[in-house]
Amino acid sequence: MPPRISSTKGSAVLREFKTLIPYAKRYLPFYIPGFLFLILTDGGQLFIPQIIKRAINDLSGGSPELQAILRLAVEMVAIALAVAIGRFGWRYFIQGSSRRIEKELRDRYFSHLIELSPAFFARYQSGDLMARATNDMNAIRMATGMATVSFVDGLFMTLAILIILFTQFPLLALYTILPLPILSVLMLVVGNLLGDRFRKVQEGFARLSGHVQEALSGIRVIQSFTQEEHSVRLFSRINDEYRDRNMALVKLFGFVWPIMTFLSGLTVLLLLWLGGPAVIGGGMSTGDFVAFMSYLGMLAWPMMGAGYTINLLQRGGASLKRVNAVLSEKPEIVGPPSGARSLGDGAIAIRGLSFAYPPSSALAGFPSARDEGAAAGEGRRVLSDISLDLPQGKTLGILGRTGSGKSTLIRVLPRLLDPPLGTVSIGGRDVHDFDLPFLRSSIGMVPQDSFLFSATVRENIAFGAPELSEEAVRRVAEISTIDRDLSAFPRGLDTVVGERGVTLSGGQKQRIALSRALAVNPPILILDDALSSVDTQTEERILRELMRERQGKTNLLISHRVSTLSVADWIIVIEGGRVVQSGTHEELLSREGFYSEIHALQRIEQRVG
Description:
By secondary structure, the chain is of the alpha/beta class. The protein has 3 domains: about 5-325, ABC transporter type 1, transmembrane domain (ABC transporter transmembrane region fold), CATH 1.20.1560; about 340-440 and about 530-609, 3-Layer(aba) Sandwich (Rossmann fold); about 450-520, Rossmann fold, CATH 3.40.50.300. It is about 60% helix and about 10% strand. The chain has a 6-stranded mixed beta sheet with strand order 6-7-8-3-9-10. Strands 2-1-4-5 form a 4-stranded antiparallel beta sheet, with no helix packed on it. A hairpin with a 2-residue loop joins strand 9 and strand 10. The longest helix has about 55 residues, at about 230-280. The chain is elongated, with a radius of gyration of 35 Å. It starts with 6 loop residues before the first helix and ends with a helix.
């Protein structure tokens, strides 16, 4: 019997598959010939018992003709060839379509992921997102491939076999299929439980993947704190939980499968009990009996295939729900459809900028408790009434204690964080009016925690400008002084740096990241404490070359070193989200305040150190 999925849970599963309708329409020209090949395969299989019946009747007649037997053998070979062609055809068209759908859905999933805002990634673990792109996609492929095949196959075979049996021996057919309705009821009951248990399995796999990903990313921390045993114990506990969830699913399906086999075996028992006397009494030929038994054996597959189909559909529905949950997420930061693609004079103006992270936001690690100055519904206010002007071609230095709001301030420029309307503008145009990719490509940012890809030094430097010439690559490497280290690398610029640049020192990673930003030659460059791991002498050389190279372009420097900020045309000091001091390097040194205090402390450190 064909599988049926009912009840509220079953309807919910089918609703998830509505999101695949566009893919089904696009690949309908592949599915239709696939179904025709599938029917060809089934038709050939249905014809085989008839040939066997004729052969047995001829042989049992006492005087079989060799020519007739040979003719039946040729027919059998022809049918076997047709079945083979049909089986290849439906696998090529239907299975091929399911893999194409899987590929397109995974492409769409990844494309959507990289467009989402940072707040989304604060809510989801990387391991969970990876599990949805792998295990869940496989389950969706099986639902759009094998589940479709088993459904159509089961429906066609069931109807065809029942028509054949009831046409030839209606009463015998009625009695022998009596166990089958029990099987259908069992499938309805178990089908709803399969989806819930498979969802728990996928969630367990996501947790397992998340732990592995986190452990491998933080392997240096784990080893430096000698927490290998703790990490292994935690993995073992999560792995045990994943095993238990899998076993719960397997036990349920393992309980159903023997029952299905037993019920299908009862049909053969009933045939022997009722059909055997008919053969002995002459009411049924031996060939008819063998053909009838063959059809009952073939009918067992659709019965057991019903459970297989429901299992695949429930798994696919549960996985599709997890994938759709991500696809339904909307980017919190978007640009206008026809945004501006020119920075004008490039001057940066900030007017009355205040910013607070959402309540309970994990972003940037700020607590959710509201400050007295935060509006109702806001989280902790990070910036309060910031105003400044930075003409094009000038360099702004920013100093402040940890958590004062420096990084938040520079993240609103490329709209990595979204500022209130009318507070931040470039070239006299609000940042919300720019085409978002253009805005971000116009602003090069080098954070303190430099991320490098598992690629060569050259590929990391040319990441934003793949067509960068050899001369340009070496020029930006010279500015960042990473060129001095190339001779120590096994293959120079073609040395693979390992995942996240694991083979490099902190200073080397920062200098490669700086080279990467310089390679795209952005109109605005932001260094967020990007040279903190570099010694002061190297830093002074980098800054000297950097200022010479970027004459006429705008720069923003965040640093805890006063020596770094001394190259800036204008410097601001942020404390508690407010600008408490501003001026040139010399002006700030001449005043009492945080800037002159830090300068004095750092001079003492240099003398002592």
